[in-house]
């Protein structure tokens, strides 16, 4: 599984016009007069009633490079402007309904994309701004889970620290942005705002190594790619550079011996202030025990945290432009809502909102793929049995808290979940300084 995590483009901005005339994609269709428009609710939940506004959308007029400020939010790209992404839409899959995890900026969505929580923040802040003891957010990440399960992974960052680079890992500090080390070109630091990323410095690799490993069929089971800033599709960088990087990575994977067992996911961290006409869906409560401040101060899980701009996380953000690329994917596929939740429970009849794809879906997929071989060795034991995921959690939390692991063979699904939750809360309350 290879993930390319790029910057700040809503689904309408990239694919709204490009796929607008396809009946299976909720885009911006061409009117009989050749123009484009969409109803957009004035406030979430107002639907298409009297409060909705008509928005004129201009297709094919988005700036390839904006100067000084992002281009206008309702000026969209055409297929001719983004030929690589258009080719992907014709040959592989595009998500119609893939939402950002937080209706906010980059940092909280980067946190969710690698740890399934933002620890209560919906702003670009450090953890100590939220009452935390450290600048880094303490939650476990997908990289921690993979490391404990001995699943190989790599975090590929152009011009950053690690093997095959010229920048010492000692220069990496909490925060996320452009490094100013000794490299000839700038690149994005990995998301070391999270301790669960920073502690895996030995897995920080250059893009040079990414291409070498792809050519040799030697990529690890999970690869996370942070693009060079100027090729990240972030306003106001040249979209042609992002197109070229996407094509280069695709060609490297496609021509390598590992292609037939590769899933390549390309997604954007947030909507970047660009227009998207699809209403933001509701989401279940963020029940992650990472909301440490709440637990310590007896604040309800639906209440505010100590972070600026308190948010209850009961709503997802706008749609993200997301592509799925693999030889196993049907040509020109459009992916809509999932039919079931990822936790085995059918949502029909539930009081919770229906399931949606968001950034955390990538983490669930990675963990499912990592444990697939193990799961396949055993016959399904039924809904009350301890799952492979719970076994990994118990091993992980036992190691983190230095608590002896229980006898999993005498546990059931509920007791295993309760033990794991108790150890996780214990870990989150620990002073890690």
TrEMBL record:
Keywords of this protein's UniProt record, alphabetized? Hydrolase
| UniProt GO MF annotations | phosphoric ester hydrolase activity
Database matches in InterPro entries: Alkaline_phosphatase_core_sf, Phosphoesterase
Q: Does the keyword Hydrolase apply?
A: yes
Please give the biological process terms from Gene Ontology that the record holds. phospholipid catabolic process
| TM segment ranges | none
Q: Which Pfam families match?
A: Phosphoesterase (PF04185)
Q: Could you tell me what this protein is called?
A: Phosphoesterase family protein
């Amino acid at each position: 599984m290879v993930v390319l995590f790029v910057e700040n483009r809503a689904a309408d901005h990239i694919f709204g016009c490009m796929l607008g005339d396809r009946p299976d994609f909720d885009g911006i269709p061409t009117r009989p007069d050749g123009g484009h428009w969409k109803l957009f609710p004035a406030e979430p939940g107002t639907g298409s009633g009297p409060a909705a506004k008509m928005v004129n959308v201009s297709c094919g007029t988005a700036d390839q490079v904006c100067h000084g400020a992002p281009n206008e939010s309702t000026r969209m790209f055409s297929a001719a402007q983004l030929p690589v992404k258009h080719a992907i839409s014709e040959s592989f899959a595009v998500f119609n309904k893939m939402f950002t995890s937080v209706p906010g900026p980059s940092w909280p969505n980067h946190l969710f994309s690698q740890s399934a929580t933002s620890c209560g923040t919906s702003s670009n802040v450090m953890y100590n701004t939220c009452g935390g003891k450290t600048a880094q957010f303490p939650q476990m990440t997908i990289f921690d889970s993979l490391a404990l399960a001995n699943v190989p992974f790599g975090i590929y960052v152009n011009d950053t620290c690690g093997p095959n680079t010229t920048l010492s890992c000692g220069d990496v500090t909490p925060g996320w942005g452009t490094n100013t080390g000794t490299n000839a070109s700038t690149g994005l630091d990995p998301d070391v705002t999270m301790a669960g990323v920073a502690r895996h410095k030995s897995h920080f690799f250059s893009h040079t190594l990414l291409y070498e490993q792809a050519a040799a069929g030697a990529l690890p089971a999970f690869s996370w790619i942070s693009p060079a800033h100027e090729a990240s599709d972030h306003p106001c960088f040249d979209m042609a550079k992002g197109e070229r990087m996407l094509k280069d990575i695709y060609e490297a994977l496609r021509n390598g011996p590992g292609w037939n067992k590769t899933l390549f996911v390309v997604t954007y961290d947030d909507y970047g202030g660009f227009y998207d006409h699809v209403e933001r869906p509701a989401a279940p409560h963020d029940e992650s025990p990472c909301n440490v401040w709440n637990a310590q101060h007896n604040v309800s899980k639906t209440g505010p945290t100590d972070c600026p701009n308190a948010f209850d996380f009961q709503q997802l953000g706008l749609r993200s432009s997301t592509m799925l690329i693999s030889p196993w994917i049907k040509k020109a596929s459009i992916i809509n809502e999932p039919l079931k939740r990822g936790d085995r429970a059918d949502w029909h009849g539930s009081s919770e909102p229906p399931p949606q794809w968001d950034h955390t879906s990538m983490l669930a997929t990675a963990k499912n793929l990592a444990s697939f071989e193990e799961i396949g060795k055993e016959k399904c034991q039924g809904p009350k049995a301890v799952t492979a995921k719970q076994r990994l959690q118990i091993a992980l939390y036992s190691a983190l808290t230095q608590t002896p692991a229980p006898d999993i063979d005498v546990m059931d699904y509920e007791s295993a979940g309760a033990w794991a939750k108790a150890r996780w809360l214990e870990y989150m309350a620990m002073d890690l300084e």
